[in-house]
């Protein structure tokens, strides 16, 4: 496990919430994409300060749920609330300004730009790399040494694991209250997966709430506090990750495999 420096504090303006209270809730959320009805009344609760894993077979609606939260696809009906804010009334930039960051499955980095330029684009308060918060940048370097090592290299030349590190680094270059990541361990070598788990644990310790879509159940078990399982556009199970990890029959029934 990597030894990292203490993370910078989260947003100073963020109110302190009771740990048991959900930071994000979805109630009866339906989403249509063209003629296709993808989400069929999703109910989801993401507790403040915890790591929530969203699991499910391919096509269950996990990515659509994340994109609906971010306003990239608009909910047809239902309510999405983040710390009292009704997300369906906001645009994607406005949702991001609440302190929510999203790392899509394709990572969303700019291949022709350097690692430094990718981070600078995400640091809205900085016009030059020198204006990025130095303590926060050093913390990111401690989480992801490859970001510092390849600082002036084109992002497109990085390995898959290094690109994923850069994508997460971009998402947290400014303080965030909620980090949403789609398939963070997909295609990564075990050593890189361990590094990613360490980084997410540090983010949680700093007060960041995490919502992760994941197919790697071993990854989910090591990191998750709570779990929600989707099937056919609905959440069909929600509860503590520890209990889900211990129930092989439930895993087999819901996912077709076990941890």
TrEMBL record:
Q: Which SMART domains match?
A: AAA (SM00382)
Give the molecular function GO annotations. Answer: ATP binding; ATP hydrolysis activity; branched-chain amino acid transmembrane transporter activity
**Keywords, comma-separated and alphabetical:** Amino-acid transport, ATP-binding, Cell membrane, Membrane, Nucleotide-binding, Transport
Q: Which Gene3D superfamilies match?
A: P-loop containing nucleotide triphosphate hydrolases
| Chain ranges of the ABC transporter domain | 24-257
InterPro entries linked: AAA+_ATPase (IPR003593), ABC_transporter-like_ATP-bd (IPR003439), ABC_transporter-like_CS (IPR017871), BCAA_Transport_ATP-bd_LivF (IPR052156), P-loop_NTPase (IPR027417)
* BP terms from Gene Ontology: L-amino acid transport
Among its keywords, does the record have ATP-binding? yes
Decide whether keyword ATP-binding is in the record. Answer: yes
- What's the domain of life for this entry? Bacteria
Q: Which family does it belong to?
A: Belongs to the ABC transporter superfamily.
Record-linked PANTHER family: ABC TRANSPORTER ATP-BINDING PROTEIN, HIGH-AFFINITY BRANCHED-CHAIN AMINO ACID TRANSPORT ATP-BINDING PROTEIN LIVF
**Under which name does UniProt file this protein?**
Branched-chain amino acid transport system ATP-binding protein
């Amino acid at each position: 496990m990597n030894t990292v420096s203490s993370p910078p504090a989260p947003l100073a303006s963020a109110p302190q919430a009771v740990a048991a209270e959900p930071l994000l809730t979805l109630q009866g959320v339906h989403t249509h994409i063209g003629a296709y009805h993808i989400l069929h009344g999703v109910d989801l609760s993401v507790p403040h300060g915890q790591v929530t894993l969203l699991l499910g077979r391919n096509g269950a609606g996990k990515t659509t749920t994340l994109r609906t939260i971010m306003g990239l696809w608009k909910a047809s009906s239902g309510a999405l609330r983040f710390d009292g804010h009704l997300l369906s009334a906001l645009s994607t930039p406005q949702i991001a300004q609440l302190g929510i960051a999203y790392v899509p499955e394709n990572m969303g980095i700019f291949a022709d730009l350097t690692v430094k330029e990718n981070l600078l684009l995400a640091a809205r308060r900085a016009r030059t790399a020198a204006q990025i918060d130095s303590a926060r940048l050093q913390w990111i370097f401690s989480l992801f040494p490859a970001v510092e090592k390849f600082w002036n290299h084109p992002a497109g030349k990085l390995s898959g694991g290094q690109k994923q590190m850069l994508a997460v680094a971009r998402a947290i270059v400014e303080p965030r209250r909620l980090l949403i990541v789609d398939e963070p361990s997909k295609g990564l070598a075990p050593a890189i997966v361990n590094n990613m788990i360490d980084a997410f644990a540090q983010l949680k310790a700093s007060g960041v709430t995490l919502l992760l879509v994941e197919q790697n159940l071993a990854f989910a078990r090591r990191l998750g506090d709570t779990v929600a399982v989707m099937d056919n556009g609905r959440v069909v199970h929600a509860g503590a990750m520890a209990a889900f990890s211990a129930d092989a029959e439930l895993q087999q029934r819901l996912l077709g495999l076990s941890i």
